[in-house]
Known about the structure:
The structure holds two protein chains of two kinds.
Chain A: E1 2-8, E2 11-20, H1 25-36, E3 42-53, H2 55-70, E4 74-78, H3 82-90, H4 93-96, E5 98-99
Parallel strand pairs in A: 2-3, 3-4, 4-5
Antiparallel strand pairs in A: 1-2
Chain B: H1 8-78, H2 85-96, E1 100-107, E2 120-125, E3 131-136, H3 148-156, E4 160-161, E5 165-166, E6 174-183, E7 189-198, H4 200-208, E8 216-220, H5 239-246, H6 249-259, E9 264-270, E10 273-281, E11 287-293, H7 294-297, H8 299-345, H9 361-407, E12 418-425, E13 433-441, E14 444-452, H10 456-473, H11 480-493, E15 501-509, E16 514-520, E17 526-528, E18 534-536, E19 556-559, E20 565-569, H12 571-574, H13 585-593, H14 602-617, E21 626-633
Antiparallel strand pairs in B: 1-2, 1-7, 2-3, 4-6, 5-6, 6-7, 8-11, 9-10, 10-11, 12-21, 13-14, 14-15, 15-16, 16-19, 17-18, 17-20, 20-21
Helix pairs in contact in B: 1-2, 1-4, 1-8, 5-6, 8-9, 9-10, 10-11
Amino acid sequence: MNITINEEDGKVRASVCGRVDTTNAEQFLQGVKPLMEIEKPDIEIDCGELEYTSSQGLRVFLMLQKAVSAKKGSMVLTRMRPQVKEVFDITGFSNIIRIV
Amino acid sequence: MSWRKKSFSYRLSTDFVFITSILFLAALITTAFISYKLIADEATRSAKNKLDATVKEIEIEIQKVEDAVNGIAWLVEEHLDDPDYMYHITRKLVSESGTVFGSAVAFEPDSFEGMHYYSPYSFKDRSAGSEIRSIQLGNDDYDYFSMEWYRKAADSRQPCWSEPYVDEGGGGLEMSTYSRPVFDKEGKFKAVITADFYLGVASEIISRVQPYANSRTVLASASGKYIIDKDSPYFGLDILSSCKSIKDSRAIAAAEDMLGGQEGVASYKNNGNTSFLVYGPLKNGWSAAIVCDYKEVLRNAGRMQLLLLIEAVLGLILLFLLCNSISHRLTRPLLDFEKSARGIAEGDFNTSLPQIDSDDEIKHLRDSFEYMQNSLNTYIYELKETTASKERIESELAIASQIQMGIVPHSFPDLGRVSLSAMLKPAREVGGDFYDCFLHDKDTVYFTIGDVSGKGVPAALVMAICISAFRFLSNLDLSISQLLTKMNDSLCDSNEANMFVTLLIGKIDLRTGRMSYCNAGHNPPVLIGPDGKAGFLGVKPNIAIGLLKEFKYEEQEIDLAPGSRMLFYTDGVTEAETVSKAQYGEDRLLSWAGRIPSGYSAEAVCSSLYADVSTFTGDEPQNDDITIMTMKIE
Lengths: 100, 634
C-alpha cells in the first residue's frame, strides 16, 4: 500500500496503490491524515492502482469523507477498479462517497 | 598459565618494562658507541702527546752526542798531522760527555807512514769502574774501512748515525754510532770522528713510556731496526717485517710511513683485536711509535657500561615491581566491578557498587554502572508494566473471543419445515462476524448475519450491541425494514469510532415459506433452487449500518419453494485468499453452489463450503472470520 499526495492551485490530488487490509489499515489512516486537515478540502483520489480494500479500508474512506463534509468540502474517488467498486456498492458506500 | 590468563596489571607491567628496556637498551648502545668513539679518540690524542714528549727526550740525548762530536771536530782538523794527539782528543770527548760511551778518530787507509789502519779509540771500561781506556782499533781482524759507521760517513761526506749494533770490543753493549767526516784544509776527506751512543739510554726512556697496561713504545732506526735492549727477542728485527706479519695492509702502510719519516695514526686488526699505532720521526732519521689495543683502552668504558647495564636491570626489576603494584592497586576496583556486574547479571540490580574516591576513569565507570543500574531498574519496571498490561489485553481479547463465541447460538430449535445450520470460524484475532437465528413465535423465524468493520475488542463490542439490539427490536413487531432502520439509528448515535456493520436480517413465515429480508451493505446470499440452479438473491444495496442516521432501508420479499436452499455468508468466504493473494470470489462460490447435491442437509452444505474454501486457500492462514449460515426448505 502506498499513498502519494500532490497539491496544486488549492486542488489536492492523491493516489492510493496496492492493497488495504487488516495489516496496513492503520498505516493507510495515517497516510490520509494530512487530507483530513486541509482547510477547504477539494480532493481527488485516484484509485486506479487500488487492488483491494477490506472493511477497515472502507472505514478510513468513511472517516475521510466525514472530515471533508464537516468542512463543507468535496472529495471524489476516480478510476476505481470494478472489483473494488463492487465492495463500495455492496456496502452502500457508493451512496455516501462520490465515485466517478 | 597462558599469556591471556595473566592479570591485567601483570601484562601492563611486562609491556611497560619491555618498552622501557628497549628504550634503555637503545640509549645504552648509543652512549656506548659515542663514548667508545670519544675515548678512542682521546686515547690516540694522549698517546700522540706522550710520543711527542718521548721523541723530544730522546732527541736531547742524541743532540748531546752530536754536539760533543761537532764541538771537537775542529781540533781533529787542526792536528791531522799529529796521530798521537788523536788519543788525547778521543779521551777528552769521552771524558767530557756523559752520554758518549766511546769515541774514535778513524783515518783513511795509509794516512801515516807504515800504518794501513789508524784509528785511536777511547771508551769507558765498565769492567774497570768506567775508567777511560784507549786503544788502536784498526787491524786486519777489524777492517773498519768496510764498517757501516765508517763507510756511510766516508761515502756521503755527511754526518750520519749507524744502525744499532752490539759492540764486541767495548763491553758487549748495544750501540749506535754518530760519525762525522773530517776534511783537511784543501777539503780532502781525511778521517771520520765518531761517538758511540749507548742505546740503553733510549731504551730506558722508552720503557718509562707506557700510557696503557699492554701498550708498547718502540723506537726504530732509519732502516726500521728496533732500537731496543739487546736481550729482547726483538733486537735486530725490523719494524716493517713485524708489521707484515700482522697481515693488515693498514699496519704495513703505517710502517712504510715511519720509514719515510712521516708521522700519523693508524688502526688495524691484530689477532682479532683492533689496535692503534701512533708514530712520528726523530730528527736523526729514527722514528718512534706507541702501539696499543683498543680493548685495553676501552676496558674502563666497558666496565662502566656493564655497571650501567646491571643498574638498568635492577632498575627495570624495581620498575616492574612498582608498576605491578601500582596497576594492581588501580585495577582492584575492576575486580569489585566484576563482582557487581555478576550480581547484576544474576538479577540483583541493586547490588552495591565499589566506593571510588578518585575522580578519574574508574569513577566514570562507577557512574556509568550506577546509570546502568538505574536504567535497568526503570526498564525492568516498565517491562513488567508492559507485560502485565499486555497480559491484561490478551486476557481481555480472550474474553472478547469468548463473548463472540458465546453470543452466537450453537444449536437451533426444531423449526419444522426449515432446517438450519451455521458456523463461525474466527480468525486468529477476534473478528467481528456474527449470526443469529431464533423462533419468534411458532410460525416465525428471525435470522441475521453480519460483519463488523475492524477486529478485536471494539468489533466484539459492536457485534454484541448489534445482536442485543436485533433480539430486543424483534420483540416489537416491527417490519424488517423498520427494525433495521432503528438498529442503524441506535448505532449511529453512539459511533464515535466510525465503526460500521454490514448485515442482512430477515424473517421467514414457516407456514408459507415467505421470507422478508433487508440488506445493509452485506454480501448477497445465494439461493439454490429446487432444480439445483444457484444464483445470488437480488438485494437492494442500501448502506451498512452505523454510517448515516435516519437512512430509510428498503426490505424485499421472496417465496421460498420447497426444496430450495439459502446460503448466507460473510466476506471471509469470498475474500479468502491463497498465498498469491488470489481471492475465492463470488464466481467460484456460485459455481460451487451449483454442484451441491440436492440430498445434502443444511449442516452438510455448511461444512462442505468451508471445506471447499479451506482447500482453496491451502496453507495460508485465515485472515478474516469465516461465517456461513445455510437453510433448507422442506
